[in-house]
Amino acid sequence: MKAKDIMNCFFEECCTTDHVGYVKNMMIEKQSDFAIVVDREGRYKGVLYARSIVNTSIEGKTCHEIMSEVRAIGEEQALEHINDDYKSFIPVINRMGYPVGIITLEEMFNLWRTEKKEPVFQRKTPNNRTAKYTIDDIIGNSHIVMSLKESILSAARVRSTVLILGETGVGKELVAQAIANLSARRFKPFVRINCAAIPENLLESELFGYEAGAYTGALKGGNQGKFEIADGGTIFLDEIGDMQLMMQAKILRVLQEREIEKIGGRYPIPVDVRVIAATHADLERMIENREFRQDLYYRLNVIPIHIPPLREHVEDIEPLFNHYINLYAEEMGLTAPNVERGVYEMLKAYHWPGNVRELKNLVEMLIASNSGRIAKGMLSSYFSDKLEYERQDENYLKLNSIEAEREMILKYLKMHDNNKNKVADVLGISRSTLYNKLKRYQIK
Ligand SMILES: Nc1ncnc2c1ncn2[C@@H]1O[C@H](COP(=O)(O)OP(=O)(O)OP(=O)(O)O)[C@@H](O)[C@H]1O
């Protein structure tokens, strides 16, 4: 596996044991500048590229901020810059995602030498692959949320395939996890794969695995794919609309035959996996444009669940806002700030293109400022920045040409020092959609 693929895994924020093994070897043999993020229990969380953050202090920064800096450098660029100029270090990130300190690579090696069992890296067991969120994590009392919860309950009773539709940040993954957690498969694996984030040539091996000797560089004993890992449980195929037609045909086969074929494998392997797919794309339009297979759509759309955007259930904004205030204040060890009068009205008047995710990020930013209260002024600067972007977006929509979209992305990338997270955020699209656009427009 190449370093680039590891970075992809990091961007995907889910790594298998084999990736951990690879990173460990690479750090030992090559003294590379990758850093490993672990939680307080020592469980592996992801890989960071040290150079992009080595010049800045991580003290007091949230994990998200650090990751944004890492992403800002851009994966291609980050890999080009790997060299030995900088001292490698391992930031230790606590359970809440905040950095609590750094240990150097040398210290890490000493730990490995002196301890027989791996002190920092632990193998990911199937247990931490089960769904984390439950139906109780879904906040809101509106009719929309209530009927969403009813759909979750009915979907959990059966094993049919579910297709979750909705804009970015509306809670598609949350709903998928809630279904899995209520179903008979709740103690079995819940495996998520973001079909948009994995490069096309890797997707097949990620999904179906490969046999020993399937290709040069393959692991000695072969590798399990996500379908095999999810056996007995649930697989969540996120951003299914971004899957290429060839892969769509292979997924269709799994749904029809309930068996997978590993790369280089001689026999199909039966799998018992419940599929939950999600997308923000308009699949019916994609079918018309011959970008999505109609037969696969029918196979997936057995239980359709549509999650409306946040602006269609503004009555949930206040409970969501308060919920995340308390959650972040607790995580950061701060007292929950007072909310100034008129704040909720302002929140309700906004149209939330990034939906609940955007609201959640805003709360995190407000809490991190630790100002003791949430004032209207704090919101107006956030909203006016966003509105400025949208005015520019409108121009783009009027032009509605590929060139205009390309130019707009380039402009925002420049404006935000290539910080793709920020750009995705201001454009109100998910990071994977932005990556797809970058790929499509050949923006490096
Ligand atoms: N009703 C809700 N109550 C509480 N939290 C929510 C709710 N809806 C969404 N969230 C939170 O908002 C964030 C975004 O949700 P999620 O990742 O499930 O969205 P998504 O639709 O899958 O987004 P994308 O299409 O960009 O992948 C998550 O942190 C999730 O926990």
UniProtKB/TrEMBL annotation:
Which residue range or ranges hold the Sigma-54 factor interaction domain?
138-368
By its UniProt entry, which SMART domains does this protein fall under?
AAA
Does the keyword Cytoplasm feature in the UniProt annotation? no
Tell me the keywords, alphabetical order: ATP-binding, DNA-binding, Nucleotide-binding, Transcription, Transcription regulation
Question: Which Gene3D superfamilies does UniProt cross-reference here?
Answer: 1.10.8.60, CBS-domain, Homeodomain-like, P-loop containing nucleotide triphosphate hydrolases
| SUPFAM superfamilies per record | CBS-domain pair, Homeodomain-like, P-loop containing nucleoside triphosphate hydrolases
InterPro entries in the record: AAA+_ATPase, AAA_lid_NorR, CBS_dom_sf, Homeodomain-like_sf, HTH_Fis, P-loop_NTPase, Sigma_54_int, Sigma_54_int_dom_ATP-bd_1
Q: Which domain of life is it from?
A: Bacteria
- Protein name listed in UniProt: Sigma 54-interacting transcriptional regulator
Whose protein is this, by species? Answer: Fusibacter paucivorans
